[in-house]
Amino acid sequence: MRTALVIGTGLIGTSAALALAGRGVTVHLVDHDPERAQTAAALGAGTDAPPPGRVDLAIVAVPPAYTATALAAAMRDGVARGYLDVASVKGGPRRELEALSLDLSAYIGSHPMSGKERSGPLAATADLFEGRPWVLTPTAATDTEVLNLALELIALCRAVPVVMDADAHDRAVALVSHTPQLVSSMVAARLEEADETAVRLCGQGIRDVTRIAASDPAMWVDILTANPGPVADVLTGIAADLDETVRALRSLQSPDEERRLGGATDIGSVLRRGNAGRARVPGKHGTAPAAYEIVGVLISDQPGELARIFSDAGREGVNIEDVRIEHATGQQAGLVQLMVEPSAAASLAASLRERGWAIRQ
């Protein structure tokens, strides 16, 4: 791949352009808002000048509602050898293209499974896709050359290709992406009018659950409008679990001991099912989830403190597998949770304690 055209310079389009441009591909940028394309170009994602001729690959990175229209226009203009979209739903755009009776041999659907709460070109990074799954949904008509161009794009972005049926993809993302966004927003909405005293008690748990609630509502309306059925199906199951849980909680308030015991059993069942589901979420590098030990370190809010912790851990020869920071409300301090292999936890805690760190395990 020597040349590419990115249509839509939001987070995903600009990030792909940055990755391609950084690896020597000549990238042309176009957006319905010329200022966004100019911003992406200024960031080093390519040029907002039109391509002088046909490019190798056109990447359509516009909202799902406009994906088929943008693809059809590009294909009719013959701007590329191959055409690929990165919309977060796949079945709808494909059916729209089929209804237009276009030759789809030059087209392949795709969806990089990565993103941020922030949107727009200024949120883009060249490493956004590194190590992340990038779904491809070829049709029976997709030409081998176009599939190879898509695989090259994924390789240049250092992502991991996953081939799926378009409708199976939409059901999958309804479960692992679209429904979590709605549930996160629903929980965060409970905080809007909560008493200030309650809000001041917010800890890491509520921060984890509501992190993605900061996402752009307009963007998510577009996404959910394109995949309403599968999301509604998942929410129906969650609603049934919620009804059961509410009944169980009410039973815990009953003066009847048998009802209370039944309620506790039902609550425990939901929590255990949650344990089982969480255990299936892939861990580091997409492998089976690992059971890490947590070494907690009290840290002051001062420049260089995190670097000092990692440096001290490195001297002990311990690899930090993951890290979380739990901030103390109203205090210039927090708790850093270092996740390490169980065999390394005791030695790391002892080493850090010797170096003056306050350890909480």
Automatic annotation (TrEMBL):
EC number: 1.3.1.12
GO biological process: tyrosine biosynthetic process
Signal peptide segment: 1-19
Prephenate/arogenate dehydrogenase domain span: 2-283
Keyword Amino-acid biosynthesis assigned: yes
InterPro entries according to UniProt: 6-PGluconate_DH-like_C_sf, ACT-like_dom_sf, ACT_dom, NAD(P)-bd_dom_sf, PDH_C, PDH_N, Preph/Arog_dehydrog, Prephen_DH
Catalytic activity of the protein: prephenate + NAD(+) = 3-(4-hydroxyphenyl)pyruvate + CO2 + NADH
Domain of life: Bacteria
Matches recorded under PROSITE patterns: ACT, PDH_ADH
Keywords of this entry: Amino-acid biosynthesis, Aromatic amino acid biosynthesis, NAD, Oxidoreductase, Signal, Tyrosine biosynthesis
Annotated ACT domain residues: 294-361
Gene Ontology terms, MF aspect: NAD+ binding; prephenate dehydrogenase (NAD+) activity; prephenate dehydrogenase (NADP+) activity
Pathway info: Amino-acid biosynthesis; L-tyrosine biosynthesis; (4-hydroxyphenyl)pyruvate from prephenate (NAD(+) route): step 1/1
Pfam families per UniProt: PDH_C, PDH_N
Family: Belongs to the prephenate/arogenate dehydrogenase family.
Name recorded for this polypeptide: Prephenate dehydrogenase
